[in-house]
Specification:
The chain is of the alpha+beta class. The chain contains three helices and nine strands. The protein is globular, with a radius of gyration of 29 Å.
């Protein structure tokens, strides 16, 4: 049983790598090994979760376990609509190695079917997109980056009156910074007198 989801699965094999694969009768706390189960989808697992016997109700989850919270979001869409299933399978496999990003299905009138993904930051987003394109031979289109935030308003004597969730796009800020860097500098007018004229403005004799 996985304690984070509460789902039960049959145990098919238990063992360890020494470095060869060796099957064992059991694994206890503190030992490193593998457990083969009948899990059909990788979404049903959580990295860092506690595994216990089905009938053992006294086992508590490992303290400190919690899912990571993404900070930056963007949409990933395949350039070819036929690669949608390949992208879905690639995200499932990549999440097994990197549980710090999330994804959910998203549709767009212009781009079709894709996924809205959450990352820890802009660098993490670029790394995940690069891995998807290189390791799984995918051609992807990423939408504008944005962050989610919540705002609250406190009224006198009523406490927190309203909480609204919204999203803030990162694209306008980047565009303003780039425009400021590319802005041409104004040329200063030269105050030196031309060689053909005197300082008073008359022609030399």
């Amino acid at each position: 049983r996985l304690l984070s989801t509460g789902r039960d699965y049959p145990v098919l094999s238990v063992g360890a790598f020494t470095p060869k694969r060796v099957e064992l009768d059991s694994l206890s706390a503190g030992e490193v090994g593998f457990v083969v189960t009948g899990i059909k989808s990788v979404r049903e697992t959580r990295i860092g979760d506690t595994v216990a016997d089905e009938g053992n109700t006294e086992v508590a989850p490992y303290p400190g376990f919690q899912e990571t919270k993404p900070m930056v979001f963007c949409g990933l869409f395949p350039t070819d609509s036929d690669q949608y299933e390949d992208l879905k399978e690639a995200l499932d496999k990549l999440r097994m190695n990197d549980a710090s990003f999330t994804y959910e299905m998203e549709t767009s009138l212009a781009l079709g079917f894709g996924f809205r993904c959450g990352f820890l930051g802009l660098l993490h987003m670029e790394i995940v997109q690069e891995r998807l394109e290189r390791e799984f031979s995918l051609s992807l289109i990423s939408t504008a980056r944005f962050i989610r935030f919540s705002s609250s308003r406190t009224l006198p004597g009523q406490g927190c009156a309203a909480i609204a969730a919204s999203a803030l796009s990162l694209k306008p800020r980047i565009a303003r910074e780039n425009s400021a860097l590319k802005r041409p500098r104004k040329k200063r007018a030269s105050s030196a007198a031309s060689p053909g004229r005197s300082r008073r403005g008359g022609m030399r004799s």
